[in-house]
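seq:
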Amino acid sequence: MPTHAKMAAELLRGAANFFRTMKSAYPIDADELEINAETCDKVAGLVEDDPLGDAPDMIDGDVSRRESKKN
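struct:
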């Protein structure tokens, strides 16, 4: 029986495929759709590899572009 994490990862990968499919229908939004797809793929990997791990700070799925923390 799959775990919740495995199910979530599969759903996220399905969403990534959906975003990539939509790029041909909406070429003006292709860059944004690809960013969404990449984000879904990255989060799917995180959920599978470390389901209880702390989430990284991300902007548009890119962990190298971190939001500044305001205290």
